[in-house]
Amino acid sequence: MLKAFIEPFRHPRPELDLGKGTDGASGRKPKAKAKNMSGTLARIWSYLARRKGKLALVLLMVMLSSGLSLLGPYLLGIGVDEFLVSLKGPDEAPYDSGWIYFLIGLAAVYILQALTTWLHNVWMIGIAQETVYRMRMELFTHLHRLPIPFYGKRQQGEIMSRLTNDIENVSSTLNSSAIQIFSSVLTLVGTLTVMLWLSPLLTLLTFLVVPLMVLGMRWITRRTGPLFKERQRNLGDLNGYIEETLSGQRVIKAFSQEERVIRGFNERNKRIRLSGFWAQSISGFIPKLMNGLNNLSFAIVAGIGGIMAIKGYISIGTIIIFESYARQFTRPLNDLANQWNTLLSAIAGAERVFEVLDEEVEAKDEGAAVTLTHVDGAVAFENVSFSYEKGGDTLEGISFEAKPGEMIALVGPTGAGKTTLIQLLSRFYDPDSGRIALDGRDLSTIRRESLRSQMAFVLQDSFLFQGTIRENIRFGRLDATDEEVEEAAKLANAHSFIMRMKDGYDKMLKPDGSGISQGQKQLLAIARAILANPSMLVLDEATSSIDTVTEIKIQEGLQRLMKGRTSFVIAHRLNTIRSADRILVLKDGRLMEQGTHDELLKQGGFYSELYHSQLKRAAM
Ligand SMILES: Nc1ncnc2c1ncn2[C@@H]1O[C@H](COP(=O)(O)OP(=O)(O)OP(=O)(O)O)[C@@H](O)[C@H]1O
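Above: query sequence and adenosine-5'-triphosphate SMILES. Below: predicted holo structure tokens.
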């Protein structure tokens, strides 16, 4: 109801629309509408309710400031009647003490109004910041408890936009809009009540222009609404494009696609210019219309009110009160219309935040799940099948065994399912059927955290954080001493290159790990894994070409790391896994062959084919 009334008064404010309620990062269509408004509001309230006392104070201040905003003009009218209209002639000056007290009282009212407004603003900002602080914390913590499949389904930019844009949207709305709406409603109701009480006829005359305002505004907003939405969509599209092209800089440069990317940007930029031009030009007419109609109302009240005053129906002071109130009336109406929309988009934002908070966290370990203290490293896959999507067959009927300390190599063409098999072993996903066992114990009966703490990963593109080399190695075991960190680096063959750097172990690495070479990154990852001292290892062999010296160093480091641990090596160059205890050959999600290098060559099957074709390519 309220929305229907105030919607036409909405001044589309460009600065409010920027990035808010849009899925800026992903560039998707903005979702301005909340799906479950009352539920979301109740949930926001549950956050606010934690500061009930302060909130009550804020509401009290809002009521006071709204009341005082009514009292000011009212007193002014009374003052005019009392001290000016009653003057007998131009020579009679209102210098008696009553007039002075009146002025002091009036000033006190306006000062108090400013003070109460300031107080409710500051207190509300405090409550709002505390609320979004808690939301942000909850969301970030929750994101780290969500299972890997959640991330597989969503774009990173989209998740980030919830943590930043959407939360910011809730924050700014709680800061101002929520209270402004309350204050506007109070002021409107109060103004109307006092006006009706003073003179129903003059009230009617004052509001004669309101239907014209509603019609005029509706006419304009009907035209600008779709234009603003269009601009919002274009903005989202542009944001997504910027994010994509900035993160893909290397590829763009490598393929010399700069010109094409700039052209793409230009097209999107033009679309924003066009929709922005029309939206803002048409909506720019709104303040003029409001002003014109306000003046019309002013003239009607002054004219008819003047006649009524001459006839003695009302006093001059009453006309002054009406004129002030009439001017005061359109402001909260405008505020309401603007804030209402901001509020709606914030509710939609909050809903998107709650949607993530409602995502199921990684399934709880079963009650009886155990924490492993020691692992021998015997792994068995028994007829394991798995698919990322229902009905698929990413892995089918996989069975093999790995004895403690064995090196198992996984080979097969791209997309064969090697990484998926490792994901199942680390319980990032659970098999659809079949069983995986560690030391004879079903994986599902082992606590995930405990299982993962027994494993270390040395991947192709090892993830390095922004921090020193020392901190990055220590990530393997946070309580390791500096000596232990250096010992691990020595075993990994990383010590010498670290010492050649200016700051040695204190060299700061950049957030994306750039600044050191691929081979050096891998040596650091090996050091990290050595420090973690896991019972099981997962190694993703580097595909990128690394110089022979570094490669020998890496191989040495890996040999030391693998010693006595069950290791799974995803191999791309088959000559590096000749010493593997077992080679698993995967193709299209099925285990085609398994055995040692020699056994598989003798079989003359798929592995032998792969091996010989690689030999041939190397010889060319
Ligand atoms: N998160 C995912 N959601 C849906 N399908 C996926 C997902 N990850 C991988 N796949 C699909 O599962 C199949 C196996 O992928 P996997 O990454 O295990 O192959 P791989 O043998 O490790 O390949 P590569 O050698 O290229 O790394 C592929 O067809 C791949 O497209």
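The first helix runs from residue 2 to 6.
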